[in-house]
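== Protein entry: sequence and backbone fold ==
=== Local backbone shapes as whole numbers ===
==== Amino acids and backbone structure tokens ====
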Amino acid sequence: MTGETMRQDIEHEADELVIVLELALGTSVEVRRRFDQAWARGFEVASASDDGYRLRRQSDGAVLPVSFPPDDVRRSRSPRS
């Protein structure tokens, strides 16, 4: 492995790590619905890992049984007036 190849691998891994750790635990988020690609409110980050985010439903505190990729989770936006 050359120095250039190793540097590219490290940069790629660092980029992935930044994406996963972008939202802190407890952050109020929206998740992209799989059936219509719209954003659903009412969740918070329960945990983060290499697989993505585990989310907690704010209405009842239940942690959803699947991980969501970082591209499908965003910080909650203010409701429109």
Helices lie at 3-20. The domain at 3-75 is CATH 2.30.30.10 (SH3 type barrels.). The mean pLDDT is 83. The beta strands are 28-32, 39-49, 52-57, 63-68, 73-75.
